[in-house]
Amino acid sequence: MLFNSFSFGLFLPITLLLYWAVGFKRIKAQNLILLAASYFFYGLWDWRFLFLIVASSLVDYFAALAIKGSESFSRKKIFLYSSIIWNLGVLFLFKYYNFFIDEFALLFNMQQGEYAFSTLNLILPVGLSFYTFQTMSYTIDVYKNRVTPTNNLLNFLCFVGFFPQLVAGPIEKASDLLPQFSKKRSFDIDQVKEGLRQILWGLFKKMVIADNAAYVVNMVYASPEDYGSFSLLYASILFFFQIYGDFSGYSDIAIGTAKLFGFKLSKNFNVPYLAKSVTEFWQRWHITLTRWFTDYVYFPIIQKNLRSNTRRNIAVYLTMGLIGLWHGADWTFVIFGLFQGFLIVLERTPLTKDRKSSLFHKSSKLSFLLPLFFVLIASLSSVLFRSQNIDDAWVVVQRILSFIPSTQISQLINKYFLIFTALMLTSEILTRRKDFPLSQLEKHIRRPLRWIIYYIFIFIIFQYAGFQEDFIYFQF
Amino acid sequence: MPDFKKILSIFNFSKSIQEFLKYCVFFFTPVVMTYCFLEVLALQIPITFKVVGDYLESNSTKIELVALGSSQVKCSFNPALSHVPAINMASSSQHHKEDYLILKGVIDKLPKLKYILFEVSYMHLELPYHSQNYWKNNIYLNYYGINTFERQTYFKDKLIYLSHPRYFSSKIKDYYFDENKKNGEQLNEFGFDINKYYGSFHKLKYDTAQIKNKYFKIYTHENPDIFKKNTAFLFKMLDHMKEKKLKVIISTIPLYKTYLNKRNPNIVRRRDSVLSEILKKYKNVTILDKETDTLQFTAKDFLNENHLNPDGAKKFTALVNRKLDSLH
């Protein structure tokens, strides 16, 4: 069930009514409704994968309890590793197995049938990378005494399966989300209105910005040989805005939906196109994923020797390479991650002994141009992200750098799309200290005008939405 | 009368929830009402699909030929000029998957059906099929009564305006508010637009020198994986037609010289090899290959580089008729 679908438009109010109808004092009943709704929401994609979610939840629930109950350090470790092996094993089997088998065969120049392992015909379960990381962080945190394991299985199942963030995040830490399932949730009308406004803003970004950008991007990337340099560059920049509108729009809808149920989810995007460095970009883009890899990969590597530059650089490359690989089982993603890692290392390296002489230092006179520069870098690296394989990506990069005339560029430009993108950018930049541009509107604008603004957005969404595209991050 | 107060009393709604529900009702009522109004307006417009659907319903016992395909067939075959009772169910961007599902949907409704005309054009085998969410699925369901969703249908699948608000808004605007719309379509009773002359070639007054330098969109990217999939599907489609004892005319539609020159030769070669394979394998299939016929089809027969205008359609339909005569 997609957030921008008719079915979700029916599912959400029904779930919401049932949820609040049982009364805020009956937490267990509310959690049961949430769990049933979440499994229904997920089961509509493929009910068979519900078993996988339940199995993952149970493994981590019991592993965490066993870690807590073990007195010896080695036993705790065994339970931790069991949980990690299970989670990474499932992820590997469904997401990476075929990729590694193919690469292995290619490496040794083997044909199908010549090696013992053959590729599997498996569908990647929606949201697998998201909920696996969430449950894995829970057991690691329990092991490190950062979180007390819960005894309440229902709450834990809800924590893993909570439908607003189940399939595409934000990836929540147990310390932030899990306690919310045991607290009383009261119906706060202001919070609910805020949630609805965030959903509206998310739908605008997804349906008007991302889906319209997708139309042009898909057309150009379907046949890059037919387009000139500027058209390809334009499509690549558009892809940056497509993926931003798509994923940040999804996150807004997820966070807004959670608010309707009295939950608070983490912010996942913070105006990333204002970043003045690649490091800052990743602190503003898919924040919860960057946080996850920083906490569970980067810090554990560097903490043994904080002063070693080599170790830090290796940690950056490894973290960014894994972030790339998290996005998909293809070399394009790995190279994308390593390229980001290279840029981060580059910007950390001073050109002279004066640290401020670093290539991308914020105090540089041209620092106001840095956001533009990083949007361009993000767009160019998104070529790797968008292309089907390395060969296709190379064709695009070659053609962009060959300055081939783009006679057809005007056919790719849609004036309404540009107006709405400008509306999104200016609104987000002007309200960058808020969670989203429509936030707390009632503090500044009276109801009649407020409603007119909502109706205008609904009109724009109806009238100018692109064709329905799946959320890009579902495939990860 | 049911006692709503009593029914609602089983829910434990607090005052703030009741206030919120009231707020929602006030806010969303105009939205829902506006939508219903637009839906009704959209349903009244005699768009091509509606005319074709009506024709299908009222002539189902007579129709002997069904034409399927993309806008190229839609613009090329005028059922009014056909020697046998025919219907043109082609529409823009309609791919083999939709063709097949439409055929399966109409086959039992048409007792006299003998012939199928469809296309295997230049890029047909290398372009991916539409997803299950393809907006025209709603159209096919509403106007033709055919389920192309490949799943059970629901209430939302019947909503026309929602399937493509931008398209229907423009149709509503043209139909209800723009009486003097220039160069508007004139559909005959078969749903064929007999006034479809006003394409890019008309704008250039059919001046071949200007047409030569004009930019147009053409795909040249090779997709071997999609080619394999689409070819397998095409054979499955032909097996079905053979099983139903239908005579099939596979056509390639005339293209203008500039388009022909820009085609990717590998794509053309692959497509042509499939066509020869079909000819060997299926006795019920005949090919009408007119893609490179630049003698009969000149600039004045074209709407643009890859679509015929009604004059070109007249010539093309005559060629189909000749084929039909040979099949009798």
Write the layout of secondary structure elements.
The complex is a heterodimer of chains A (476) and B (328).
Chain A: H1 6-21, H2 27-46, H3 50-69, H4 73-107, H5 128-143, H6 153-161, H7 163-166, H8 174-177, H9 189-222, H10 229-260, H11 278-284, H12 287-302, H13 309-327, H14 331-348, H15 370-386, H16 390-401, H17 409-412, H18 415-430, H19 447-464
Helix pairs in contact in A: 1-2, 2-6, 3-4, 3-5, 3-6, 4-5, 9-10, 9-18, 9-19, 10-15, 10-16, 12-13, 13-14, 14-15, 15-16
Chain B: H1 4-9, H2 15-44, H3 48-58, E1 65-67, H4 71-76, E2 86-88, H5 96-106, E3 115-119, H6 136-144, H7 160-163, H8 165-177, H9 200-203, H10 208-212, H11 224-243, E4 247-252, H12 257-262, H13 265-281, E5 285-289, E6 302-304, E7 307-308, H14 310-327
Parallel strand pairs in B: 1-2, 1-3, 3-4, 4-5
Antiparallel strand pairs in B: 6-7
Structural class computed from helices and strand pairing of chain A? mainly alpha
The number of strands of chain B is 7
The count of domains of chain A is 2
- Calculate the terminal CA-CA distance of chain A, rounded to whole Å: 16 Å
How does the helix and strand content of chain B classify structurally? alpha/beta
* CATH architecture level-2 label of chain B: 3-Layer(aba) Sandwich
Question: Would you identify the regions of chain A where 5 or more consecutive residues have pLDDT less than 50?
Answer: none
Average pLDDT score of chain A: 86
Strand composition percent of chain A: under 5%
Helix content of chain A: 55-70%
Listing every helix as H and every strand as E from the N terminus to the C terminus, the arrangement of chain A reads HHHHHHHHHHHHHHHHHHH
Helix coverage percent of residues of chain B?
40-55%
Question: What's the tally of helices of chain A?
Answer: 19
* Unreliable stretches of chain B: none
